[in-house]
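Provenance and format

Records in this collection were gathered into a single text stream. Each protein contributes a sequence line and a token line. The two records reproduced below are adjacent in the stream.
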Amino acid sequence: MKSYIVFLFQLMVWSGYTVAEWLSRHDRLIFKILMFCIFTYLAVYIGKAVLKSVRRTFFITVVSLTSYGVIQLILQSLIY
């Protein structure tokens, strides 16, 4: 159950990243990469705080980021 909670929290973090990226659409690429690193750190920190396992945190983070990326690609293909 903890893994599911972390997954949902991380999806919220990735949603926040999408909003922040949308608000900073005119920024340079280096700042967007830095912002992605900060949001990734936040997602990993939340996972490690709840799960207390580096391996499970890494796995859930990769799964949540992949899931969110796939969802974004599907939604963008439906809009355009």
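Adjacent record:
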Amino acid sequence: MAKSTIQTPNLLLRALSDADRALIDPLLSRTDLQRETVLARVGEPTARLFFIEGGVASSVAIEGSTKTEVGLIGIDGVTGVNAVLGDDLSSFETFMQVYGGTALSIRTQDMRRLMAQSPSLREIMTVYAHVFMVQISYALVACAQHLMEARLARWLLMCHDRVEGDGIALTHEFMAVMIAAQRSGVTMTLHSLEGAGMIRSTRGLVTIRDRTKLVELAGSSYGIPERRYSALIAPFGKTAAGG
């Protein structure tokens, strides 16, 4: 079986067998992504799945005017887990929060047909859906049991895992939404992390300086979903040494 001719940094696609890549590759199309590009809307049919190749997409639950982040998707995964599990309608809004990349997309109906055709493709997509659910669970644990400093450390680590280099293009307003906090509280917490040498924060950019300290601060809120992904799909994430 010939190997795929589509080169991609997406770890989920790269974890597929040659046979499954031969099935899916002809149906993939590459799309440029910009910040705030919406990939899924609450209550609307999921027409396409997006395998992220750069940047970070955020899935958020919406209640009234309040948005609460439940999961992040980068080069580790794909949007539209609901469709993978058989639900046509999205329960979350998913949009690009850290831009700087592309995505390979496929029509939902085509993905479902291929999953019915290939047990191995169906298995790895289901495993990814499970790992994403683990991530959602730990987002809820972080909000319920951890202070703002730990929640922000967890979120920065998750973004860091999904971008090239150590710089993450983020605003204070956006971080406040993502960790369910007031902007003033986020600003103060960033100053605290910066004073401890963990990060450098400038207008619209956070640079990770000491990942080991961030991991220690995040505590049990970070690490388990990442280890499950690495064990079940492919090695993922930067090491505590910043590699």
